[in-house]
């Protein structure tokens, strides 16, 4: 990776988005995971100030993640606020039926995004996305939840590249060593949910993206099936909702 060029591009991208929108800065949800931690660091480097973080735990949240998020806020001197959202989540669950852990996680993600956009209006700041390319391609996120944002500076970096860039920037080892998790329910693990490590997933995604037939032949068939299924079934999450052009039928 050409770290220097990547960082220059990201820096310019963030500054440009703020300038064009005539806003004061950015706001992000800081989970204690590597993706949001890296985005916070990149925004701090680009803007120096006006980077605001919301920490929004539920009773399912790992205390270690909250501690790491607080540590990062203090290290980067970020303005932040802790919002316990369990009571809001309980209200949603009370109105739902036969809710499972995935739907509960979706509720939590959408509650967090609602609060981010509310505080973005309060702070006159843009909501910055924290999903990486691997997650976006696989649809591994909640539409109108953690996938919603005004712009995303890391959405073209695979998860494995996120780790590389984080190491290059000397992000605290706590973020680099911990198992990837959306922290939506107790002991939730991204790689457990997906069935494969991000290292293997990224190899497969890159092979598919480049149509590398030799690399594709070496892939585990179960991995390839999972990737193709998710790429197809979750394609709708990667585009804006399609609007039917009625004028075509009026001619």
From TrEMBL:
<keyword id="KW-0436">Ligase</keyword>
<dbReference type="GO" id="GO:0005524">
    <property type="term" value="F:ATP binding"/>
</dbReference>
<dbReference type="InterPro" id="IPR014729">
    <property type="entry name" value="Rossmann-like_a/b/a_fold"/>
</dbReference>
<feature type="binding site">
    <location>
        <position position="130"/>
    </location>
    <ligand>
        <name>ATP</name>
    </ligand>
</feature>
<dbReference type="InterPro" id="IPR003694">
    <property type="entry name" value="NAD_synthase"/>
</dbReference>
<feature type="binding site">
    <location>
        <begin position="29"/>
        <end position="36"/>
    </location>
    <ligand>
        <name>ATP</name>
    </ligand>
</feature>
<keyword id="KW-0460">Magnesium</keyword>
<feature type="binding site">
    <location>
        <position position="35"/>
    </location>
    <ligand>
        <name>Mg(2+)</name>
    </ligand>
</feature>
<comment type="pathway">
    <text>Cofactor biosynthesis; NAD(+) biosynthesis; NAD(+) from deamido-NAD(+) (ammonia route): step 1/1.</text>
</comment>
<dbReference type="GO" id="GO:0004359">
    <property type="term" value="F:glutaminase activity"/>
</dbReference>
<feature type="binding site">
    <location>
        <position position="181"/>
    </location>
    <ligand>
        <name>ATP</name>
    </ligand>
</feature>
<feature type="binding site">
    <location>
        <position position="135"/>
    </location>
    <ligand>
        <name>Mg(2+)</name>
    </ligand>
</feature>
<keyword id="KW-0479">Metal-binding</keyword>
<dbReference type="GO" id="GO:0005737">
    <property type="term" value="C:cytoplasm"/>
</dbReference>
<keyword id="KW-0520">NAD</keyword>
<feature type="binding site" description="in other chain">
    <location>
        <position position="110"/>
    </location>
    <ligand>
        <name>deamido-NAD(+)</name>
    </ligand>
</feature>
<dbReference type="GO" id="GO:0003952">
    <property type="term" value="F:NAD+ synthase (glutamine-hydrolyzing) activity"/>
</dbReference>
<comment type="subunit">
    <text>Homodimer.</text>
</comment>
<comment type="similarity">
    <text>Belongs to the NAD synthetase family.</text>
</comment>
<feature type="binding site">
    <location>
        <position position="159"/>
    </location>
    <ligand>
        <name>ATP</name>
    </ligand>
</feature>
<dbReference type="GO" id="GO:0046872">
    <property type="term" value="F:metal ion binding"/>
</dbReference>
<dbReference type="InterPro" id="IPR022310">
    <property type="entry name" value="NAD/GMP_synthase"/>
</dbReference>
<dbReference type="Pfam" id="PF02540">
    <property type="entry name" value="NAD_synthase"/>
</dbReference>
<dbReference type="GO" id="GO:0009435">
    <property type="term" value="P:NAD+ biosynthetic process"/>
</dbReference>
<dbReference type="InterPro" id="IPR022926">
    <property type="entry name" value="NH(3)-dep_NAD(+)_synth"/>
</dbReference>
<keyword id="KW-0067">ATP-binding</keyword>
<keyword id="KW-0547">Nucleotide-binding</keyword>
<protein>
    <recommendedName>
        <fullName>NH(3)-dependent NAD(+) synthetase</fullName>
        <ecNumber>6.3.1.5</ecNumber>
    </recommendedName>
</protein>
<feature type="domain" description="NAD/GMP synthase">
    <location>
        <begin position="7"/>
        <end position="241"/>
    </location>
</feature>
<dbReference type="GO" id="GO:0008795">
    <property type="term" value="F:NAD+ synthase activity"/>
</dbReference>
<comment type="function">
    <text>Catalyzes the ATP-dependent amidation of deamido-NAD to form NAD. Uses ammonia as a nitrogen source.</text>
</comment>
